[in-house]
Amino acid sequence: MKVALISPRGAERNQQNNLLREVYRKLSDALCFVEVDDIEFMPHLGLLSIASYIPGDWEVSYIDENYIDLNGVAPSFFLGDFDLICLGGFNHQAKRAYQIASFFKQRNIPVVMGGLHASALPEEALQHVDVVIIGEGEDAFPKFLENFQKGKYERIYRSSGEVDLTKVPPPRYDLININNYNKIPIVATRGCPHDCEFCCLKGIYGHKHRKKTVEQVCREIEIIKSLGEERFISFADENMLVDREYAKKLLRALIPYNITYECYCDTASAQDPELIDLLRESGCIEALIGFESVDMENLENLEPWKARQLRGYPKVIEAFQSRGVGVVGLFVVGFDHDGPDVFKRILDFCNENAIFDIDVSILTPIPGSRFFDKLRGNGRMLSTDWDHYNWHHVNFRPKLMTPKELRQGLNWLYKEFYRQEDVTGRYMRFGKVFDSLFDHGIAR
Q1: Is 261 a domain residue?
Q2: Can you give the pLDDT at residue 439?
């Protein structure tokens, strides 16, 4: 059997869109990790994860359209003699995924699709593919494979519950060409205790915070390191540090591997100085924290727990950065209480608190989220063109500004935050923190 795992080209690759391309390229010398013309290139972890369940005697190809010359696509894989096509992808990759599916279906090759978009909109996906995997692939995909080998399979396979992560095999990192990527994703945990209105992950993973064993994570790090040249590691967990005792055990185990990485966490982690020290000692350069907004009313509507943290945001940033871990503030603009002044307010907050970096997105009604359902019901949805569902397009009608003001305001915010002199000064200040830690013998 020959299987192709295909990650479709999105309409706009990663950060390479009209809004950010100019900003990032101008600052490539100042930013920490950028050695290419984009801020991040990562393989599709979901496809690599399900690849581990494919029988060992099958021939498996991982194909990432982002790294194939479009003029050479057909001879590269469209004409391949495959027995099964597996598609993954986020919302902005869905339309391209459907195009690929159409081509292979014309050749009578079965096409199966999973991921967030297909899980949220299975009926739509079934108009284009033969089989949809809903939910966690580690549970549902093996059931499909078992039936596929018998020559008879269902159209929908649904995850039956929360996967026991201690029993999942390592992703098939050996299938990728590591030279195509400057970040390699990995997960240690799954699930988040919060319930943000715009997030669709609760419907896929649930609230329960589940964990791989420390030994599993270390083994995956070893596999990545064995591929050759060192790569920046991105822990893609929704909220990696929820269980602090587990997190500390994991971070201590990571120290000998001498890796450099980032992780996502919430503001509660700032309450534990030992945890932050272990982040730094184990190689964490930046913690990505979902502040979301600097407006109390927005946060109360979004997730009451986050509203209660707002006044402590400056102390959170100080707690991490004073101990040598940069904070990447994750913000969203376009909430119902956001007017045209929101961009200046976020910029002032970030500058006043000397935040290391930011990632600001336009509020997007992602299928599977409560926000999507709300907008679909009140008539404020402007578009369901999935090509534009990448968090940098306006797909709904904001309450206190026009779609044009929202788009242009985000553009202004990025350009102001990433002015060359400000970026250089920001990283020089952060470098002084590291120097101080080294001088006192507490940084590795």
Answers
A1: yes
A2: 52
CA nearest to 231, candidates 176, 179, 285, 307: 179
CATH code of 86's domain: 3.40.50.280
Cα-trace Rg, the chain: 22
**How far is the C-alpha of 431 from the C-alpha of 94, rounded, in Å?**
41
- pLDDT value of residue 294: 97
Residues 291 and 420 both lie in one domain: yes
- Is residue 375 a contact partner of residue 365, using CB atoms and an 8 Å limit? yes
Q: Are residues 352 and 251 in the same domain?
A: yes
Of 239, 243, 244, 248, give the one whose Cα is nearest residue 289: 239
d(C-alpha 136, C-alpha 114), whole Å: 9
Among 113-122, 278-287, 308-317, 373-382, where is mean pLDDT lowest?
Answer: 373-382
My answer on whether 280 and 384 are in the same domain is yes
Q: Count the domains in the chain.
A: 2
Whole-number pLDDT of residue 440 = 42
Looking at the DSSP bridge assignments, the partners of residue 40 are: none
The whole-number average pLDDT for the span 417-423 is 78
In a domain, 368, yes or no: yes
Give the residue, 12 or 233, on which the prediction is more confident.
Answer: 233
Domain range enclosing 143: 2-158
Task: Tell me: do 271 and 398 sit in the same domain.
Answer: yes
User: Would you say residue 127 lies in a domain?
Assistant: yes
Instruction: Based on the fold, state whether residues 137 and 201 are members of the same structural domain.
Output: no
Pairwise CA distance, residues 145 & 151, whole Å: 10
Q: What is the CATH number of the domain that holds 311?
A: 3.20.20.70
Is 163 part of a structural domain of the chain? Answer: no
What is the CB neighbour count within 10 angstroms for residue 74? 11
Token pair listed for 400: 């206190």
- Give the pLDDT mean for 134-160: 95
Tell me the per-residue pLDDT of 37-89, one tens digit each, with 9 for 90 and over: 446 789 999 999 999 999 999 999 999 987 766 665 555 567 778 999 999 98
Q: Are residues 86 and 212 in the same domain?
A: no
**Residue closest to 186 by CA, chosen among 68, 74, 42, 87:** 42
Q: Which of 144-148, 154-158, 199-203, 275-279 has the lowest mean pLDDT?
A: 199-203
Least reliable range by pLDDT among 34-48, 123-137, 245-259: 34-48
Instruction: Locate 131 and state its tokens.
Output: 């089989």
- How many Å apart are CA 132 and CA 225, to the nearest integer? 33
